[in-house]
Structure formats: structure tokens, C-alpha cells
């Protein structure tokens, strides 16, 4: 079968549009998700794939649909940043994440808080629930506000299915 020609670059399979950024593996968009202890989405944010995740955590907390801000935030090694820990501590949020391997500064948390890191599977499960929506796995929209709206709609459907 021949390739279907089209005037627009979207038809040719090239990624483009708002908030599409370069990564090591091509271009993409980051979908940041904030969930509660049961895995119910509290907030979702969409951003380009090129900026570091450390700078995207605080805007994600602002995107929460409720006024409730969790006391603890469990994240992976990408969030190991002392300035981020201080900013979140000012808001009353404790950041629980393991330190990076090459960390030069002394550790800021002991092993007791890291026991909660074992519950990270809850966010991974919620991300797998989001991957049941094909439109979020592969971004078909050119405009980021449409992709963000579909992500919010998928989160609402997840919440409604849980009740």
C-alpha cells in the first residue's frame, strides 16, 4: 500500500503542535498526574517533554481540582532536589523520594520516610488506567488544550468508575 499524501503535516505522521518538545527518543508531551492514597486523580497537567520534572511539580499542585493538598508527596528519583523540598515544606508538604546515586550533599531524610515509597505502585496503577484511553497513549491533537481536556475527561471517567 502506498503512503497517503496530505497537505498537512499531521497526516504524514510528524509530531507537532503546542507543548511538543524534543527528548532522547524523539518528540513528546509529559502528562503529570496527582493522585490521592486510593489512586483517584486529583489533578492533571500537560507540558512539553523537554523540561525537567522538578520544575513541573509545583504547577501540578496548583492544577488540583480540590483545595485539598496532600501532606506527603511520593515521587521518584527525578524529584531529588533540595530547593524543591524547601518550597514544598513551606507549603506544608513532605517530599518522599529516594536520593540520586551521585548525590554529593548529605541526606535530608532517613529510611523511615522512605518506607512510604513502597506505595508508589498506586500512581503506576492509575497511569495504567489512563493508558486504557487510546487518545492519551498516542497524542493525536495538534493543540495542547484539547489533549489536556481529554486527559481531564479520562480522569473524571476513572473517578466515576471507582464509585
Shape: globular
* Relative strand content: 15-25%
* Terminus-to-terminus distance: 47 Å
How many individual β-strands? 5
Q: Trace the largest sheet across and list its strands.
A: 1-2-3
How confident overall, as mean pLDDT? 80
Number of helices: 6
Structural class label: alpha+beta
| Largest sheet geometry | 3 strands, antiparallel
Task: Please state the oligomeric state of the protein chains shown.
Answer: single chain
List keywords for this structure.
163 residues, alpha+beta, three-stranded antiparallel beta sheet, two-stranded parallel sheet, 6 helices, 32% helix, disordered N terminus
Descriptive notes:
It is a single chain. The chain has helices at residues 57-62, 82-90, 111-114, 121-130, 134-137, 144-162, and strands at residues 21-23, 26-35, 41-48, 72-74, 94-96. The longest helix is centred in the last third of the chain and has 19 residues, at 144-162. The chain contains six helices and five strands. With 163 residues, it is an alpha+beta fold. The strands form two sheets. Strands 1-2-3 form a three-stranded antiparallel beta sheet.
